[in-house]
Backbone:
C-alpha cells in the first residue's frame, strides 16, 4: 500500500488528462496527474501528442509557412515589394519549439495553481488496494501511489505502414514530419486525412514537390461531398498532387531517400522516389505499459479501452477518455470527456454531445464542419433543405484577398432545425463555433438568418448561407 493516496489519479497529461485533473481539483478532490513526455532536456513536457507533436506545433509551422508563401506570392498584390526572400528552417523550427514549450510550461503552471500533484513518469496498474488502486510511477525514481478513482487518458500513437516502420529520418510519423531539418525536394504522404493535408501544405508552401497517396476512392470521405470537391479544387490549383484509389506496395528506405511502389486507381503499377515519406494512415490507442491486465481492464479487439456512455470502464472507479476510447480522436473531444468524468465523479451530470463536436482541417483554405453531411442525410432518407454562400461574394474575404470556398447549411425540411454546417475558406476554424452554439441550442437556420452580423466580416457568409436555405440571400 502506498503512503501517497489520492482521490483521483489521471494517467496522461494530454488535453483529456490535464483538463480532467484540473476540473477534478476545482471540484475539491485531491488529484495527481502522471505524464511521461520529455522535452529536449529530459524535463517534463505535459500536453500529450497535441501539444508536443500534434495540434500546436503543426499550427505553428502552418502559420510560418503561410507567411512565407504570402511573402513570395501574394504580397505584391498588396503593393508590398519583397526582395531577397530567404528561408531559415532552423529559426522556423526553433519558433515552433518555443510555442510548444510555452504550452508545456502553461500546463505545469495550471497544475500548480490548481494544486494538482504532478508526477513525471509512466504510470501502470499494480493491484487493487484498500484505497482503490495501487499504481507504480516509473520515472527518475520509482514511486508508488494509490487512487480511489483512476482516469486513463493515455492517448494514441501513429499507425505505421505494414513492413515500413517509422525511422523518423526517411519514413516519418507526425513527430518526424515536424522536425525535418531542410526542405525536401520531393515529399510523399500516405493518407489524405487531417495530418497528411496539413503537413503536405506546410512543406509544399516551403518548396517541396508533394504527392499524396490515398487508398480511398473519394477525397475526404468524412467531409460533405460538395465541400470536399471545393477543397480539392483549391489544393489542385496550389500544386498539391493528390492520387486517389491507391494501393501502396513495397516501401524501401535507403541513403538517397524512399522508393514507393504503388498501384493507381486504374490498376497501373507506379513507382515514386522521394526524399521523405510521411505516413498518416490513422492512429492506434496507446495502452503500452499500462498493465491493465493486472486489474482486469477490458480492451476490445482494436486495443481500445471499453467504456460506456459515461466513460466508465468495466472496473469500478476506473474511467477512460480521449483517443484511447471510442469516438473521434480530437483534442477537444478528449477535453470535454475529461471535464464530464471529473463532474460525474463528483456526483454531477457531465455532458458530451458527440453530434455537436466540430472538426477542423487547418489547411489553406481551412475546412470545418459540425453535424451531418448531405450524403449522410440522403443515406438515412431525411428530408432536408440546403443553402450555400460563396466567399467570393463576401466583402471581407475580398479585402483579405482570399475568396476561396463557401459556407453551407443543412436544415430539416419540416422544422428548419440545423442538421449540419460545412465550411471551406478563410478562417472557418473560427466561424464554425457559431454553428456549434446554434446546434447545441437546437436553433433553426432562420434563427441564424435573423441575427445581426458585423459588416464587413467573414461571419456574414454564415448568415447568408442560412438565408440561402430559404432562397433569400441578399448579396449573391
Residues:
Amino acid at each position: 500500500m502506498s503512503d501517497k493516496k489520492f482521490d483521483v489519479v489521471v494517467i496522461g497529461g494530454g488535453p483529456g488528462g490535464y483538463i480532467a485533473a484540473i476540473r477534478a481539483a476545482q471540484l475539491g478532490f485531491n488529484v495527481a496527474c502522471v505524464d511521461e513526455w520529455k522535452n529536449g532536456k529530459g524535463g517534463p513536457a505535459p500536453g500529450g501528442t497535441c501539444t508536443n507533436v500534434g495540434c500546436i506545433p503543426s499550427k505553428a509551422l502552418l502559420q510560418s509557412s503561410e507567411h512565407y508563401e504570402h511573402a513570395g506570392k501574394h504580397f505584391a498584390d498588396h503593393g508590398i515589394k519583397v526582395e531577397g526572400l530567404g528561408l531559415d528552417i532552423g529559426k522556423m523550427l526553433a519558433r515552433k519549439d518555443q510555442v510548444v514549450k510555452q504550452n508545456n510550461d502553461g500546463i505545469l503552471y495550471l497544475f500548480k495553481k490548481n494544486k494538482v500533484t504532478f508526477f513525471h513518469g509512466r504510470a501502470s496498474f499494480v493491484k487493487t488496494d484498500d484505497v482503490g488502486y495501487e499504481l507504480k510511477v516509473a520515472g527518475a525514481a520509482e514511486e508508488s501511489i494509490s487512487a480511489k478513482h483512476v482516469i486513463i487518458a493515455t492517448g494514441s500513437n501513429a499507425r505505421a505502414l505494414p513492413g515500413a516502420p517509422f525511422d523518423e529520418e526517411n519514413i516519418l510519423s507526425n513527430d518526424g514530419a515536424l522536425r525535418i531539418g531542410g526542405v525536401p525536394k520531393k515529399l510523399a504522404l500516405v493518407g489524405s486525412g487531417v495530418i497528411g493535408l496539413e503537413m503536405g501544405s506546410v512543406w509544399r508552401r516551403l518548396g517541396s514537390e508533394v504527392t499524396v497517396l490515398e487508398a480511398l476512392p473519394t477525397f475526404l470521405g468524412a467531409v460533405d461531398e460538395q465541400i470536399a470537391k471545393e477543397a480539392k479544387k483549391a489544393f489542385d490549383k496550389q500544386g498539391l498532387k493528390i492520387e486517389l484509389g491507391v494501393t501502396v506496395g513495397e516501401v524501401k528506405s535507403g541513403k538517397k531517400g524512399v522508393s514507393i511502389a504503388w498501384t493507381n486507381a486504374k490498376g497501373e503499377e507506379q513507382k515514386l522516389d522521394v526524399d521523405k515519406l510521411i505516413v498518416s494512415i490513422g492512429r492506434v490507442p496507446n495502452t503500452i505499459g499500462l498493465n491493465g491486465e493486472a486489474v482486469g481492464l477490458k480492451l476490445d479487439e482494436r486495443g481500445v479501452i471499453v467504456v460506456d456512455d459515461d466513460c466508465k470502464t468495466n472496473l469500478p472507479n476506473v474511467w477512460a477518455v480521449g483517443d484511447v476510447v471510442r469516438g473521434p480522436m480530437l483534442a477537444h473531444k478528449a477535453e470535454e470527456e475529461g471535464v464530464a468524468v471529473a463532474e460525474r465523479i463528483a456526483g454531477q451530470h457531465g455532458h458530451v454531445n458527440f453530434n455537436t463536436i466540430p472538426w477542423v482541417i487547418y489547411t489553406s483554405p481551412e475546412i470545418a464542419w459540425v453535424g451531418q453531411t448531405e450524403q449522410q442525410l440522403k443515406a438515412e432518407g431525411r428530408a432536408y433543405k440546403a443553402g450555400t454562400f460563396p466567399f467570393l461574394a463576401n466583402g471581407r474575404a475580398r479585402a483579405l484577398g482570399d475568396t476561396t470556398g463557401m459556407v453551407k447549411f443543412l436544415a430539416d425540411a419540416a422544422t428548419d432545425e440545423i442538421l449540419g454546417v460545412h465550411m471551406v475558406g478563410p478562417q472557418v476554424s473560427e466561424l464554425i463555433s457559431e454553428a456549434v452554439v446554434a446546434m447545441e441550442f437546437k436553433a433553426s437556420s432562420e434563427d441564424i438568418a435573423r441575427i445581426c452580423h458585423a459588416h464587413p466580416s467573414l461571419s456574414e457568409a454564415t448568415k447568408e448561407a442560412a438565408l440561402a436555405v430559404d432562397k433569400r440571400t441578399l448579396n449573391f
In short: The longest strand covers residues 117-128. The mean pLDDT is 97. The domain at 171-281 is CATH 3.50.50.60 (FAD/NAD(P)-binding domain). DSSP finds 13 helices and 21 strands in the chain.
